Amino acid sequence: MKVIALGAQVLDILVRPVAAIPEGQQTTLVEDIRITAAGTAAGTALTLAKLGASVRTAGAIGADTSGDILLTLLAKAGIDTELVVRKDNQPTSSSVLPIRPDGARPSLHLLGANPFYTLDDVDWDALAAADHLHVGGPELIGVTNAARILRYAKENGVTTSVDLIAPGTLGSLDAIAAALPYTDYFLPNDEQVLGFTGSTDLRAGSAVLIDAGATVLAITRGAEGTLLVGPDGYQDIPAFAIDVVDTTGCGDAFSAGFIRAIALGRSLRDATILGNAVAALVAQGLGSDYGEFDLAAADAFAAESPTRATDRSRPGR
C-alpha cells in the first residue's frame, strides 16, 4: 500500500502531567517531556508506517531548526519526506501540550507554515502513482486547493480520505464542502461534525455531510467510540477500555488504522474496529508516536481487549 499523507505537519512538545501552570516564575517538576512529529498528515503517517504501509508525507514546514527536527523524526520512523516543502519566511508549525493527569490536552499552538502549502508545491506525478491519498486539514491549506488535489487523485484511480484539524468551534461547512465530493472516507471527530455543520445532533450533522458529497463517515467520539455512517446505515462501534495517558494523536491513529484496513480489503466495520484499536494503543502513552506495535499486534489487541460499552449497531437511517 503506497500512501501519501498530505497536509498538517506539526512538531509537538508534550509535558506530563500538568495539573496547573506554576504562578510567576515558580517551577513544578514533571514526569516526562517529549518532542514528537504530529499533525493530521504527519501524525497519521507515523501510525501508517507502523502498520506496514509505504508512506510519504507532504506539506509545508519552515526552514528552521524545528523543521529540521520534524524531518529527522519522520525519517527515523521510516517515512519518505521528499514531498515536504520548506518555506523560508514561515516557521514550522509547533504545539506545546501540557497534558492533564486525566489525559486531556489543552494546547498552545503556532500555526506556522501549514497554510502556505499551495498547488505549486504538489508533486502531481507522485500523487497519481499513490494507492491512497489522505488529506489532513483541508480547511488549513484552503478548501479550493484541497478539492483540486483530491479531484486529481480520484481522476487517477487513487482512493481518498480526509480528516480535519480545526476545532469544531472554528469551523463552517463552507470551509470543507468543496472537498467532500472527492472524499471516499471522511474521518472527523464529533465536535467537528457539529461545529462544521452547525448541527446539535450527530445524525443531523452526518446527513448534512452526506448531502454535501461525503460517501462514508467514521466519526470518532473519544471514549464513546466511533459512529460509522455508510451503506449499512448508522453503526455505533465502541471504544476499547484502557487507562488513558494522553489523547494526543488518537484521531490521527484512528485514521491510519481505518485507512490501512480498507486497503487490506476489510469491511467498513472492521476498518473502524482497527482504527479504534490503534487509537487505544496510542492513548496509553505520551505523544502521537507512542507504541511499538505493528498490524499483527493491533489486530491481537482488537481481538483480545474489552470495549467500554455494548456494541449498539443500528442499521438503517
CATH fold description: UDP-N-acetylmuramoyl-L-alanine:D-glutamate ligase
Strand content: 15-25%
Q: What is the arithmetic mean of pLDDT?
A: 95
Largest sheet, strands/sense/barrel: 10 strands, mixed
User: CATH homologous superfamily?
Assistant: Ribokinase
Helix content: 25-40%
Give the N-to-C terminal Cα separation. 33 Å
Tell me the number of structural domains. Answer: 1
Strands across the major sheet, in which order? Answer: 5-4-1-8-9-10-11-12-13-14
Q: In terms of quaternary structure, what is this?
A: single chain
C-alpha-based Rg, rounded: 18 Å
| H/E series | EEEHEHEEEHEHHEEHHEEEHHHE
What are the segments in which pLDDT stays under 50 over at least 5 consecutive residues?
310-317
The structure class reads alpha/beta
By DSSP (H or I, 4+ residues per run), the number of helices equals 10
Tell the overall outline. globular
How are the elements arranged and paired?
Elements: E1 2-7, E2 10-16, E3 32-38, H1 42-50, E4 54-62, H2 65-76, E5 84-87, E6 94-98, E7 108-110, H3 124-129, E8 132-136, H4 138-141, H5 143-155, E9 159-163, E10 185-186, H6 190-197, H7 202-211, E11 216-220, E12 226-230, E13 233-237, H8 250-263, H9 268-283, H10 295-304, E14 312-315
Parallel strand pairs: 1-4, 1-8, 2-6, 4-5, 8-9, 9-10, 10-11
Antiparallel strand pairs: 2-3, 6-7, 11-12, 12-13, 13-14
